[in-house]
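Escalated from tier 1: magnesium ion holo job.
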Amino acid sequence: MLLIRFFGGKGGVGKTTLAAAFALASADRGARTLVVSTDPAHSLGDVLGTGLSDEPVPVAPRLWAAEISGEDQARRRVAEVAEDARHAVPREVLPAVERHLARAADSPGTVESALLDRLTELVGQVGTEWDGLVVDSAPTGHMLRLLTLPALLTPWIEGLARQREKVRGLDRMVAGMVGEAADDEPDPLLRRLHSRRERLERMRDRLLSRSRVHLVVVPERLPLAETVRAADTLTGSGLRLGAVLVNRVVPGDATGLLGRHLAGQSEVLALLDERFADSGVLRVPLLARTPQGTGELAAVADLLAPLVPES
Ligand SMILES: Nc1ncnc2c1ncn2[C@@H]1O[C@H](COP(=O)(O)OP(=O)(O)OP(=O)(O)O)[C@@H](O)[C@H]1O
Ligand SMILES: [Mg+2]
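Tier 2 regenerated the structure:
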C-alpha cells in the first residue's frame, strides 16, 4: 500500500503542477486524497485555481487540499506548550521556561519542526480520513535528520523536558524531606512532549514503509547530477523512490529552436532511463500553456494515472 507521495526536485521544474495532477488522478480513481504544500511560497492554490489554508478544503470529488505554514504552526505549538507550562510549572521557574520558549519560537529548527509536526498530524490521518496523502515537496534537511536520528526530540523539546525533570526532581526531594509521598502522576507538559515524540516515531515508521518520493526533473544536462545526489540522500535515509518524472519533454517532431533541443534532450533521457531503471521513469511533455485549475490539470492527471496503484 502506497499511501504517501512526495514530489521533490529543483525550483520551477513542475513539482506543484505534477503533485496536484497526481492527486487529481488518484482522487479520480476512487481514493480520498489530500494534497498539501509545505513550501513557504505556496502556489498549490494557484495551480488548483482556488484559495487554500492550513485546514484541508474540498477542491474536486474526493480531493482536498491545504497549504501548511511552518511559521503559523510554530507559533501555535509554542503557545500550546506555554499554556501547559503555566499550569504545570511552579511560578518561580515560569519566567525561565517562558524565555526558553520565546527563544525556541525563533530558532531556525522550530519552524521546520513545527511544519513536520503538522505533517505528522496529517500522516496520522492517512488510513482513516484520507486514503492517500500527496506532499508538494520532498522531505528536506531537517526532516531527513529526524528520520535518521535515533533521538527524535527536537532541541527545544529536549531543553524543556530537562527543565521539567529538574523541577520534578526537586519536588520529589522536598516531598521526601517532609515525609510526603511524591506525586508521580505524569504532568501534562511531559505527557505532551512524550506524545509528540511518539507521534514522530509513528510517522517515521509510516513514512519509511508506506511512502515514495517522486523526483521531478527537466531533461537538461545540468540538473542531472543534483537529481542523482538527491536520490542518493533520500535512499540513504531509508526512503524509497517512486518513478522519476521527467517534465517538459520536447516532442520528437519539434522544429526550430525547440527542435534543436532534441539531441541534448535524448542524451539526458537515456542517462535518466539508465540511472533510474529500478524506480522507473515517466515522461510528461512540454505543454503549450501552463495548466491551471482542476479542469486543465485533468490532461496531466491522465498522464500520471499509471502511478496510481490499483485499488
Ligand atoms: N509540462 C509542462 N509544460 C508547460 N508548462 C509547465 C509544465 N509543467 C509545469 N509547467 C509550468 O511551469 C511553471 C512551474 O511549475 P510549478 O510551479 O509546478 O513548479 P515547481 O517545481 O513547483 O516550482 P517551485 O520550485 O517554484 O515550487 C508553472 O507556470 C507551470 O504551470
Ligand atoms: Mg512549487
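Residues 11-17, 39, 43, 247-248, 284, 286-287, 290-291 surround adenosine-5'-triphosphate (ligand 1) (CB under 6 Å).
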